[in-house]
Structures are given as structure tokens and as C-alpha cells.
Amino acid sequence: MPATWWLANRHLALFMVRELTCVFVAGYAVFLMILLFRFGQGREAFHQFFEGLRSPASILLHLITLAFVGYHSVTSFNAAPVLMIVWRGEEKVAPNLIVGANYALWLIVSVLVLAAALWLPV
To answer: pLDDT for 101-122, tens place per residue?
Structure first.
């Protein structure tokens, strides 16, 4: 079987891209742990680390990661009704309600994080 077998089917190609996005999700989780570690080392260590994040390469990497993590989130939310069947009594909860709840929660958390970032002192 050729190494590009998954490119013959659009759905398989999108699935493989989604699986690739897991690398970026894990990488950003490691980045956040390093960020917290540097924060715990004190103001100067954190400031040095933060200054390094202003480079064009870092900004580009963060934008690429944002795109991949956004794609990963959207595909996860859209797959939730298939992966997680929720029952309410004898009836299944409608799939669009599960997807809508995921997006609503994502929006609420995003607004709260944005509000905290804007109002907390740096």
C-alpha cells in the first residue's frame, strides 16, 4: 500500500489532517507548562522568556498553531454527537444541541479569558 493511500479519499485526508493537529495541541500544552514554570522562577526569568516570544518566528509559529488548534477544536465539537451519545430519560439528546452547547461553552470561556487578559495587571 502506498504511503499516500489516505489522499485518495477526501474524508480520510481531513481525518489525517485532524490527527496531525494533535501534535500542535500537545506542543502548545508543553509551551504553557514552560510558561508557567518560567513564571514561577520570578519576574526576570518570565520577562526574558516573554521577550523571546516577540520574534517573528515565534509569532508565525503561534499563528500556525492557532489555526491547527482551531481546526482541531471545530472538528472535535462537530464529532461530539457521534462520540458521545447523551440520553435524557428515554430520548437521545439532539446532535445539534450537543454541538451548540460545545460552541456556546467555547464562546463563554473565550470571553472570560479575554476579559481576564484585558483587566488583569501584567
So the answer is: 999 999 999 999 999 999 987 6
Residues 24-41: what's their mean pLDDT?
A: 94
Rounded CA-CA distance 39/36 in Å is 5
- CA-CA distance, 113 to 106, in Å (whole number)? 11
Distance CA 67, CA 19 (A): 14
CATH number at residue 61: 1.20.1300.10
For residue 91, the tally of other CB atoms under 10 A from its CB is: 8
Cell of 38: 518560567
What whole-number distance in Å separates Cα of residue 51 and Cα of residue 106? Answer: 29
Which residue's entry shows cell 489555526?
Answer: 67
Number of domains in the chain: 1
pLDDT tens-digit map of 35-84:
999 999 999 989 999 899 999 999 999 999 999 999 999 999 999 999 88
Whether 86 and 98 have beta carbons less than 8 Å apart is answered as: yes
Tell me the angle at which helices 10-40 and 43-52 cross, rounded to the nearest 10 degrees.
Answer: 150
pLDDT (average), residues 89-94: 93
